[in-house]
Amino acid sequence: MTRSSSEVRRVPRKPKPAPGSRRFSPLRLLGSVLVWAFTAGNVLVLYWLLTAAFKTPVEIFTKPFALPYQWFHVGKPFRNFVYAWNNAGFGDAVLTTVVLVGLATVATVAVSAPCAYALTRLGVRGSGPLTNVVAIGMGVPFQTVIIPLFVTMSKAHLDNEYGLFLLYVALSIPFTVFLLTGFFRSLPDELEEAASLDGASPARTFFSVMLPLARGGLITALTLNAIGLWNETLLAIVFLKDQAHFTLSRALFTFYGAASYQSEYGGLIAGVAIVVLPMLVLYLVLARRIITGLTLGAGK
Amino acid sequence: MATLTTTPPSARAPGARADGGAHLRRKKRLFWPFAAPALVLYLAFLVLPTLGTVVLSFTSWAGAGDTPKPNGVTNYTQMWASDSFQYAFRNTLVYVFAGGVGTFALAFLFTMVLRDMRGGKVVRAILFFPNIVAPVALGMFLGFVFKYQPGKQGLANYVLEHAGADAAKFLAPANVTGVVTASLIWASSGFYITILMAAVDRIPPYLYEDAELGGASPWQKFRNITLPMTWDVVGVAGVLWTINALKIFELVFVLAGPGTYAPPNEAWTLGIYVFDRTFGSNGTPDFGAACACAVAMIALVSILVVLLRRVMRRDAIQF
Questions:
Q1: Percentage of residues in chain A having pLDDT higher than 70
Q2: What are the Cα distances from residue B29, in Å, to A177, B23, B35, B267?
Q3: What whole-number distance in Å separates Cα of residue B281 and Cα of residue B295?
Q4: In whole angstroms, what is the distance from residue B78 CA to residue A97 CA?
Q5: Is B16 within 8 Å of A17 when comparing Cβ atoms?
Q6: Which of A110, B135, B286, B313 could form a disulfide with B250 if both were Cys (CB 3.0 to 4.6 A apart)?
Q7: Looking at this predicted complex, what is its ipTM?
Q8: Residues A10, A12, A13, A14: is their CA dihedral positive or negative?
C-alpha cells in the first residue's frame, strides 16, 4: 500500500522546510490527533471483530478488548465459525455467491467495455449526451425499479439466481461504463492511428490494441463490481426464495433473525467475519487499483 | 513498411490511409454492435422499469393476484399524510444533509492534515476499510457496538461505563437517527477522504511550498489552494454522497431493526418505506403506495443533485 499512486505520478521529493518556517499550529496538532484517533478507532474495530469471532458471548460483552480465551481453552477455537457455517447455510451460499458474482462481474465488463469504447473513441455524433444518459443510471436507487422488475420477472419465472444474474449485470452497467469511458478517454490517439496505418480493422484495433492497454481499468472495474455485488443484499432478498441458492449476504440476513433470537452472538459475529474477510483480503491485494480506479472515475 | 504486404486486402478498403473517410466510416459502423448490448440491458432493466414505477404510482394495486386500477394521486396524498412516510422522509433528509456536512467536514479536515503527514497512505487505506464491508454486515456489527442490555453491554456502552458514565440506549427509537447518522459518517468518510486526497495529490507541490515560505497556516493553505484546486472533484463527491445517502436501506434496516422484519417507524428511510410496502410484514402489500414513494425518491434525488450542481458551479481552474 505504501507504493500506492507513486507509480501514477512521482511527486518530486519535498525539500526540507527552512528552520523556523514551519510554525507550530494548534489546528495542525488538533488535526493530527483526530486523524490518528480515527485511524486507531478503525483498527480497534477490526481487532474487536476478529477477536470476538473466537469468543464466547460472555467474553464478548465483559472483556471486549481481551484476546479470546474460552474456546481456545476448551480446544475448539473455531466453534463460532463452525456454528455459523452449519446453521446459516454458508456452504451453499459461498458457492452460489462466488459463481454468481464471478460470472456477473465478467459479463458486466464484457458488455460495458465495448460500449465504453464505442462511446469514447468511434467519433459518432451524440456519444457525449448518450454517455451522460447512461451515467444518470448511477443515480437511480434500486428500490425505485424493484416493483416492475419483480412483477415481470416473476411472470417470466426469473425470480431466482438466473434472474439475479441478469439484474446484477444490467444494474452494474451505468457505473462500469462510466468508469471505463474515463480509462478509454485517457489512452493516446497515436496508438489507434498507428494500428489503422498498419491495416488493422477497427474491431481488431479494439481487441488487440486498446483492450490490453485498458487492462488496468478493466481490473479495477472487475474488482469494484465484485465488491459491490458480493455485498449486495436488497435484490437478493427480493429475488431469491430458495434457501439453497441464497447468496452470502442474503444468508447472513436470514441468520441474523434466527441467531439473535437465540442470543448466539459469537456465531453471528463469526458470520459477519465470513462475509467480510474475503473482501478484506481482496482489498489488501488490490487496494492500489481500487483507489486509482475510484479517483479516475470521480476526478476526471 | 513490411506490415503492409502482410495485411489481408480485405482489411484495407481503398483510400483507408491515415484518417481517410473509409476508415472513419468503418469505425462508425462498429458503434451499434459495440454499444447495443449494454444499452439494451440499460433500457430494459433501468429505463423501462422506472417508467413502469411512475405509471404504477397512479394506480391502486395490492400486488400479485390483484390488477392495477387507476386512482389518480390518491397514493401520493395518502402517503404524504402517513406517519411512516413523514418519518422516512425526515430521516432521509437528515442522513443526506447532517451526514453530508459531517462527512465532508471530516474529509476536509483530513485533507488538510494528511497531505504532509507521515504514513498518510496507510492511514488512507485503513480509513477506506468500512467501504468494502457489506452494509448488512456493517449494520449487524454496529448493532453489537451500540447494544444496550445491562450485563451484556455493547462496545460503546462498555466504554461509557468504564469511563464512569451511564450506559445509553443508543438504539431506542428517539436516538436511532442520530446513531445512524454518526455511523454513516464514520463508515463513509474514508471513501470521500480517498477521492479528495487523490485530487489533492494532483495539485503541483510548488504551490504549497510557496505558501509555506510565505508562512501560511494549514487553514490558509486549505482555503486558498486546496479548496479552489479540487472544487470540481468536491462537486462530484457531493453528487455521489447525495445519491448514496438517499438510497440507504440495509444498514438502517439491520442496525435499527430486530431482525428480518422492519424496524420501528421512527427509524425508517424512504428505502425502507418502499421495501415494507412491497414485501413487508406489516399488513398486506401495497405496490401502488410503494411506487409512489419510489417516485418521491427519484424526484428528491433529481432535485438535490440539480441544486447541488447549481450551487457548486464555478469556473474550472486549469493547471
A1: 89
A2: 20, 10, 11, 53
A3: 22
A4: 40
A5: no
A6: B135
A7: 0.85
A8: negative
